Amino acid sequence: MQRTRIQRGGVNLDVSSNGKNVWVFRWRVTMPNGQRVMRKRVIGSLERYRTKTAAEKAAGVFRMALLDKGATALTTITLRDLVRHFREQELVDRGEEGRAYSTRDRCKSVLTKWILPRWEKIPIDQIRTVAVEEWLRSISRAKGTKAKIRNTMSVLFNHAICWDFVRNNPITGPVRGSGVRQNAKRERIPDVLDVEEFQALLEELPLRERVMLWLGMTAGLRRGELAGVKWCDVDFEKLMIDVLRSVVDQRVGKVKTEASKKPVPIDPYVAEDLLHWCRISKYASPEDYVFATDATRAGAKRGKQPLWLAKVMQYHIQPAAQRVGIKKQIAWHTFRHTYTTLLHANGEDVKVVQELLRHGSARITMDVYAQAVTKAKRTAQNRVVACLRARQNGLVENLCPQRVPAPNSQMAVTD
């Protein structure tokens, strides 16, 4: 019996038609008449891949396709081959140098649920801009969801260009405006809370959840950043919190942007509640999370990892909102939106708002402004806290509007 040979191909240095040194991937094909013929695909130039090891790594996608489909089928790379290579090279944990866990997880989800089922068998050099655009139109999903799908495909083809698998990105097109057109505009304005609604919600919650709301509202912390705060990050003397990490699905990672790493001020009133929580919490050591889980099912990780804030929102905050008659859709980012809107309604300087939100987007503020000083940021924050506490002194109408205006396009907040 003749033994089946598994072909893996080989990488060698060759000279191209224009006289340049290039790395090529070679494999054999058995023709119908039984003759074995050598085939090759160019991997990249010697300037791009300085060593054979680097060229071998780049040839991985060809070798996977060879083992998967056989020698006679290895004429082009399909999208499935590209996705497999992209996952091995890009969607791995590289610490501070790589993508955040939440980004990698979202990308994997889009690839698995949307892109692969439609395009996995199509050679990547045959995927056209018009076909992708028509496909996106046929998907019954929100504009934002379809924009994420388009952007993920664009990142995928940028990876292919980087590795010399293709020359052009059909999603972006060769010139501006010639790529896949997909509107990402919101279909509904995010809900923001009125001052009285926030006050009523606070009164309905116990201390732990109340402190969470204060930090989410007046420090502008995102959900992952709020979960990632440890007691060693809190400076009660300077009234500052260092934002050093983000915890998503119990995985510790970096914060979203470089601007997000900036420390945030906390109001003395908020710090008082936070200090009260520190004194009664079972986990108040410097390396403990401020909102550590005490659930028995956490086992050995009890007290060593933060609460699942999505569950806190689902089982504690949203029911409390319903009990006090709030009909709006409340999530953790609602407090960040409301904070921005209150700052804007108070007439704060746009640069101060940017600094308080640790936002780097030019869609919110003009980057040419001078950086806001800490005193100005603290004053702006204090006004919001005073506004939210005003009911106790009957000064609501004098300090802030009862009805918070919807954010305009200039002040719209994204993640």
Could you explain how this protein is built, in words?
By secondary structure, the chain is mainly alpha-helical. Among the domains are: 10-75, no CATH class; 195-411, Orthogonal Bundle (hpI Integrase, Chain A). Helices cover 42% and strands 9% of the residues. The strands form 3 sheets. It has a 3-stranded antiparallel sheet, covered by helices on one side. Strands 4-5-8 form a 3-stranded antiparallel sheet. Helix 4 packs across helix 6, helix 7 (195-204) packs across helix 11 (309-323) and helix 13 crosses helix 14 (374-389). It is elongated.
Helix-and-strand structural type: mainly alpha
Q: Tell me the name of the CATH class of the domain at 195-411.
A: Mainly Alpha
The count of β-strands is 8
Named CATH architecture of the domain at 195-411: Orthogonal Bundle
> Considering the protein shown, what is the CATH homologous superfamily of the domain at 195-411?
Intergrase catalytic core
Q: What general outline do the C-alpha atoms trace?
A: elongated
Radius of gyration: 27 Å
Task: State the separation between the terminal residues, measured CA to CA.
Answer: 63 Å
Total helix count? 15
Look at the structure and give the mean pLDDT.
82
CATH topology of the domain at 195-411: hpI Integrase, Chain A
Residue ranges: pLDDT <50 for 5 or more in a row? 1-6, 365-371, 407-414
Strand order, biggest sheet? 1-2-3
- Run of helices and strands: EEEHHHHHHHHHEEEEEHHHHHH
Oligomer: single chain
| Strand percentage | 5-15%
User: Percent range for helical residues?
Assistant: 40-55%
Main beta sheet, described?
3 strands, antiparallel
